[in-house]
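Hi R.,

As promised, here are both runs. First protein below:
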Amino acid sequence: MNNNKKVVKRGTIIGATCALLSVVRVVKQVSAALDTAITLTISGWAVSIGSTGNFDLGSVTVASTVTTKEAQFTWAANAFFVEDLKGANSGYYTTLQSTNLTGPNGTIASSNVAVKVTSTGTVLLTGAANPRVVVADTLVAYQALNSPVTFIKRDTAANSGVIGKYGSYPFLQVSVPAFQAIGNYTATLTYTLIEN
């Protein structure tokens, strides 16, 4: 029995020694502190544009007078957009222009193809809102697309690094001349980005 008591006393002494060593280590770690600055630079990337691949205006019946066919780019996949991942103060603008509509037996001049919007505001598709990204106010009424027409834009000004994806859903109108030859007509609508 005496041996058991000695073992217990030795265990207590060893435990007390370990506790003292632990205290000494903590004091050594706290006695020196070093702050390290963390720096992260987020760089702008690019400004890009996109739109639907195709748009079908539907059909119209031939007539002895000018017939107007109108449709709107309505669902998310049909938005014309600017994705600004650059966030720079230098602005940009986009243009729309159409070629002539050509069919098997005739042509409809691009001056008969027009675009308009109901609001100069853009729709925030993703990212941060930017009230400086707008649609040109000339497009609140139909504008012929036989020459480039300014569409979505952001003027050069302080931008505070704001980035996002901004869209618009315009109306497209074709004025079909009287007695236009029947057939399927196609044209190319070109959406262009110009950075300031």
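And here is the second one, sequence first, then its structure tokens:
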Amino acid sequence: MNAIAERPIPATHKEIPSQPTVTLKKTTDSHQTFTNWMKWMNDPDIRTWMYDDLPSMPQDIDNWIYYATTDPLRHYFDITAGGKTIGLVSLRQDQQPQNTGEIGIVIGEKEYQSKGVGKQTIQQVLEYAKNTVHLTSVRAMIKPNNEKSIRLFTGVGFEETGRVTIAGTPMVRFEKSLYVSPHPIAASPRIRK
């Protein structure tokens, strides 16, 4: 037998399933959260898709985590797959009106990107936004050249509603209504001759 074929695959090179199962866990103010966020927020391949003014320095990220875990209008979750934290997702309620909010997502572990993790995550956060936080609409602000994120959000029903500049960063605004009328419109009866 070929000696190369007999070698075990190192743990860091194990194949990631094409659709890993995703779970969300409330983010905590911990050393591990800080370590992950520092790594992801300073990765140039990830940072290129974010607002230009998001924190990257240790003290700023520490403050961000503190507010992410203590502010009742911020709902941050660790994205986990295979027992490993692979990213973060946020749902921030607006001050006014409080029934709207904004979603942000980072799949920080690159081997999990383009594996369906984002879609599962957004679907879970939308359910949480609707059923737990009782939001009626959510938005995502995405850089115009971030084709993967645009496909992700439009694939789960978001629609482009405008273009804005935030902290010097051009962004495209996508929105999704979560509102379901308690009084659906009845179908018109057929007119018969």
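A quick note on the second one: The longest strand covers residues 84-93. Let me know what you think.

Best,
J.
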